[in-house]
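Progress note, project year one: complex with adenosine-5-diphosphoribose.
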Amino acid sequence: MQKPLSEYNSIVVLTGAGVSAESGLKTFRDNNGLWEGHDVSEVATPEAFEINPALVHSFYNARRNQLLEEAKPNLAHKSLSRFEAEFNGGFTLITQNVDNLHEQAGSQNVIHMHGELLQVRCINTGIVFQWTEDLTTQTHCPCCKIAGSLRPNIVWFGEIPMHMHEIEEALSHCDLFVSIGTSGNVYPAAGFVQLANAMGATTLELNLEPSLTQSAFAFAHYGPATEIVPSYFSI
Ligand code: APR
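Model obtained:
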């Protein structure tokens, strides 16, 4: 039996694509292994960017435009932001998502471990810029002025996730870890539950269906994020 949320001191939430699914953003692994019609190796690896930067740019331009023009935060994003504002203890929101729907819903201090769609990075200087325009191989970088030196500020397969020190710090001090809408395919995020368990935290999975790491969680609720997240995160 779980304690009421108000009795925890420090809560860490990890979200994945499932939290944004009902905002119209496709998840990665629910469509025969294709993400918006592409194998991830064609569009989400450093090798893909080297071989065919135009394809990678056009793929992320489409994702960026969809986020800017169509996607709105749903009840799951909103209930997490409301909970953060009302909860008296520590609250850390880590997302694997590159959309900004948590921020649009009002969440503060979102840790984007896989980068952000509305940012680009110069491959020469590492400087990050907020970006809402399309990117092409001809786009001039604002810092080095070289055409084609900007890339999406996104962690592709084979690259190291961002903010890992901060994340491990939060996990090592939490007494409740909640994983929402993630399939448990991609590490290190899929291993956070083991770390939280090792630190003695209570662990809970909220997902449409059992994830690959479901057996590591002490508790689980299954259903659409817009139903199970608001019902759990109400105090
Ligand atoms: N409500 C709750 N969960 C949902 C919903 C929904 N409406 N729709 C789908 N899901 C669940 C699916 O059942 C699945 O378990 O969300 C999960 C999404 O899994 P993935 O598509 O694998 O996404 P995610 O786990 O976030 O992927 C991790 O992989 O491709 C990389 O870097 C990318 O951040 C991504 C990482």
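The chain has eight helices and eleven strands.
The helical segments are 40-43, 46-51, 53-69, 75-86, 101-104, 164-173, 192-198, 225-232.
No further modelling is planned for this target in the current period.
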